[in-house]
Amino acid sequence: MKIADIHVHIFPHKLAEKASASIGSFYGTHTAHLASVETLLPLEQAAGIDCCAVSSSATSPHQVQHINDFIASEVRVHPNLIGLGTLFPAMEGWEAELERIAALGLKGLKIHPDFQQVPLICRKRSPCTGPWPRPVCRCSSTWATPIWTTLLRSGSPT
Q1: What is this structure's pTM?
Q2: How far apart, in whole angstroms, are the C-alpha atoms of residue 66 and residue 89?
Q3: Rounded CA gap, 36 and 15, in Å?
């Protein structure tokens, strides 16, 4: 039986310490390990995990292409990693970037409502404006790109 870890954040080594601390601070906890591939792979192997879905959420539009390129490069080097791309809410050119995510060989899209401050559900009393999230979901469905998300914490956008 193969075992997969489907929720792993990774960052370039030079950003991993700051990003790990930021995630811990955001959730009011301490992160036990650096969010880098160099830290991840030995831990996953020791735990008997065969493959991991890796992602990193963009907190601004200018990070999107860099993150997607980084995730794709790590997946090329480590075949046991399954890469998920990112978008940023209401960013210009999201359609082209979703196509690029597929062309890079990434297997899905990771949306992180907490970090990205985006409502995951559009409600009648607070309608979604702009190109998020319904059109993204429709395009993702058209291109057979699964979307992963993280459950919301208390006080997050809904």
Answers
A1: 0.79
A2: 16
A3: 9
